[in-house]
Amino acid sequence: MDKIPPFGVRPWNGVKPISRAFRIPLSGMSAQRQRMETIATNLANVDTAFGPNGTPYQRQVARLEAGRDGTVEVTGVDTLDTGFERVYDPDHPLADEDGYVRYPKIEIEQEIADLMITRRMFEANATVFEAAKAMVRQSLDI
Q1: How much is the average pLDDT of 82-109?
Q2: Does the pTM of the predicted model rise above 0.90?
Q3: DSSP classification of residue 78
Q4: Is the residue at 20 inside a domain?
Q5: How many domains does the chain have?
């Protein structure tokens, strides 16, 4: 059985160009939204010294892959092993015997740059969607 594309659009033999014109930018917008959420999670956890598995938070990135019909799909979220930063804070409850606390090694500047790129890609897909919508609207006026 075929996998159902994003936004409930069902494939059929000979994909209609009109539906494809909407499906491709919508899939891009959806993928970029997921990337934004992942980046926001990274930024929110910059100072998380104790994560769910007992270690500091690790940076995550959304894995995107091209679909067979020109769309883009989020196929998962990967956890990157970027290591940890040791910060001297002997009063912290998680400090080791030497007084150091391990924090995630997440570069805020890199996350902000990724966020800006992601936002621009989202905007580009939204522009394509609006252009397709305008073309459909003009074709209905003929």
Answers
A1: 92
A2: no
A3: E
A4: yes
A5: 1
